[in-house]
Amino acid sequence: MTTDTVVGLMAETIKITLLISAPMLIVGLIVGVVISLLQAVTQIQEMTLVFVPKIVAVMITLVASLPWMISLLITFTQNIFTNIPMYIK
What we know:
Structural class: mainly alpha
Distance between the termini: 6 Å
Largest sheet: none
């Protein structure tokens, strides 16, 4: 296994990790900003008000994007398993 192979595998792993986590992080960010804007407009400064909508939105996003995430992880894992003989060289 050469250093180029290790670097390429690490880069692909980081790319997959970012792709899988992006939908939940983006939805959490958007919901947080919207709730913060509503708090600023209405002058309600309750810190716990942000958590429940964020959790619900992230869970809905997780359920909606779960099939895509699973297929992405299965493809990645299959590629790693099929390339094991190449990695051993």
